[in-house]
Amino acid sequence: MGNNYFQFKKFRINQSDCAMKVTTDASLFGAWVAHYSSQCKKALDIGGGTGLLSLILAQKNETEIDIIEIEETCFGQMKENIEQTEWKNRINCIAKDIRDYNPSFQYSLIISNPPFHEGQLKSDDASINLARHGNDLTLEVLFKKVNELLTEEGDFYLLGPSYRDQETISIASKNGFHLKNKVAVKQSVFHDPFRIMYAFSRKNHSEGLIKEIIIKDSKDQYTEDFIMYLKDYYLYM
Fold first, then answer.
1. 75-92 pLDDT, tens per residue?
2. Is the pTM higher than 0.70?
3. C-beta separation of 75 from 50 below 8 A
4. 144-198 tens-digit pLDDT
5. From CA 124, how far away is CA 129, in angstroms rounded?
6. What count of other Cβ atoms lies within 10 Å of the Cβ of residue 77?
7. Could you read off the pLDDT of 24-71 as tens digits, one per residue?
8. CB atoms within 10 A of CB 140
9. Cα–Cα distance for residue pair 35/108, rounded to 1 Å
10. How far is CA 42 from the centre of its chain?
11. Residue 132 to residue 58: CA distance in whole angstroms
12. Distance (Å, rounded) from C-alpha 18 to C-alpha 161?
């Protein structure tokens, strides 16, 4: 997935100007969110990157989407990606730091694939640091901002690394969010989980639905679960 573009069935993601490229786990996350949010009317994508999550959501549902990205060069390419699609009139691109974003309304759905790594070794490339490292947009800051922007009945979908699972749930709880769904993602049947897909809400679910999705089986083929989510998007599926 290191090409300058990634071709989906109904849209193309050009990614030469974005530090973080299209990944399998982000594609799965987008498809998972879209599958469970068909009734959503107004969504916010925090840290839009290439525009991947918003485009997957827009293809599946009739949602109106605001997508916010802080990195200037990436924002330009993200906007181009979106403007080349049939859903361009439903996706509004915002060049801004989410910490300074204060609209007069709230969203019923917020999605984010934020910087994963806090306090770890950084790259010499400033754009990569913005995309990968959450020293400015920490999980604590992110949840506080989502708390401001989400409606009382809304859902917050988050993709994170498995090694920060308990920390993520703890920070969510501190900010008044309860676990609604959690899916551990494995590269294959031979691997431990490397990503966690979360759905949080303010409603106290007695027990969040916890599952796992394995991307490839023992024969190195995509699993039925993975195909079910991605078949509408991946070109050769």
1. 999 999 999 999 999 999
2. yes
3. no
4. 999 999 999 999 999 999 999 999 999 999 999 999 999 999 999 999 999 999 9
5. 8
6. 20
7. 999 999 999 999 998 899 999 999 999 999 999 999 999 999 999 999
8. 14
9. 15
10. 16
11. 25
12. 20
Type of residue found at 193: P
- Between the two ends of the chain, the Cα-to-Cα distance in Å is 16
Position of tokens 């306090």?
Answer: 119
Structure tokens at 100: 């300074």
Tokens representing residue 109 in the block: 């759905």
